[in-house]
């Protein structure tokens, strides 16, 4: 019997740059719907539509936005998804991230207490899964495959990762600014998100356990697009981290004018 999670929407912004990305997305959708009765929202932004009619899933919303830019404006599209999501909670998920079912369930239960703005369904340990084990997992959707002793335990971001998957109380998260659209393309927006909410004194919790990253090749949107964008993103992170609570609140009020 599936676990009922009707008050949360899994929001998955995508740009399919390779067959690996497409296969990982289909795997993630099958994995979520195998264990949960929930809501799914996929927003694809690209020059051409690449995800359509691959999986017949109920309770799924799919949106395509034509975007000619080679850089995927992830923060902007997440904000658009949150603005049109009707459930009180949202799980923002990378196409390649897999969390054990009980950790997702625990994170959801924490959110429902209504005193937490942001919950990570893992403790900060984000393991990179090699291509072979990724193929095995996609075949059987068995989390024990990823717990295998043959996994090389390659950490993506040390022991304190805050990327890949996170769950939010939408109202609280929007009050805290939502996604920071000063981050354009790949960058340290995951770290900024956590620091910003902590400075604003919102409750942030990490659930015990690990997160797994399925294998894929890396293109333009898996690294800094250029040196100028890298410098701009790092400066934005430093700017946020140096602010007081009152300074940050004033700064967030100016965000509505970004990219208008």
3D structure, described in words:
By secondary structure, this protein is of the alpha/beta class. 36% of the residues lie in helices and 22% in strands. The chain has nine helices and eleven strands. The strands form two sheets. A seven-stranded mixed β-sheet has the order 3-2-1-4-9-6-10, sandwiched between helices. Strands 5-11-7-8 form a four-stranded mixed β-sheet, with no helix packed on it. Helix 7 runs parallel beside helix 8. It is globular, with a radius of gyration of 18 Å. The chain starts with a strand and ends in a 7-residue tail after the last helix.
Reported for the largest beta sheet, the result is: 7 strands, mixed
**H and E string:** EHEEHEEHEEHHEEHHEEHH
Mean pLDDT comes to: 90
Distance between the termini: 46 Å
The number of distinct β-strands equals 11
Beta strand % = 15-25%
What class do helices, strands and sheet pairing give? alpha/beta
Shape: globular
Number of helices: 9
Provide the low-confidence segments as ranges: none
Instruction: For the largest sheet, list the strands in their spatial order.
Output: 3-2-1-4-9-6-10
């Amino acid at each position: 019997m599936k676990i009922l999670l009707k008050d949360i929407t899994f929001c998955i912004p995508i740009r399919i740059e390779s067959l690996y990305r497409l296969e990982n997305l289909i795997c993630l959708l099958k994995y979520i719907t195998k264990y949960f009765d929930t809501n799914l929202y996929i927003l694809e932004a690209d020059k051409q539509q690449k995800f359509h009619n691959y999986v017949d899933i109920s309770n799924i919303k799919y949106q395509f936005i034509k975007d000619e830019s080679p850089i995927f404006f992830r923060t902007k599209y997440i904000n658009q998804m949150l603005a049109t999501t009707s459930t009180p909670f949202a799980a923002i998920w990378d196409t390649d991230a897999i969390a054990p079912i009980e950790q997702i369930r625990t994170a959801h239960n924490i959110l429902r207490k209504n005193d937490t703005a942001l919950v990570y369904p893992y403790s900060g340990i984000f393991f990179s899964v090699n291509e072979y084990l990724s193929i095995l997992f996609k075949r059987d959707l068995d989390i024990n495959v990823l717990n295998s002793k043959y996994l090389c335990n390659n950490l993506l971001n040390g022991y304190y990762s805050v990327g890949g998957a996170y769950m939010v109380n939408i109202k609280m998260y929007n009050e805290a600014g939502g996604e920071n659209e000063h981050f354009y393309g790949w960058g340290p927006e995951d770290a900024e998100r956590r620091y910003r909410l902590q400075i604003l004194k919102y409750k942030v919790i990490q659930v015990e356990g690990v997160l797994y990253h399925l294998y894929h090749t890396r293109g333009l949107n898996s690294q800094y697009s250029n040196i100028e964008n890298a410098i701009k993103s790092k400066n934005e992170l430093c700017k946020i981290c140096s602010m007081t609570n009152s300074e940050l609140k004033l700064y967030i009020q100016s965000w509505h004018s970004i990219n208008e």
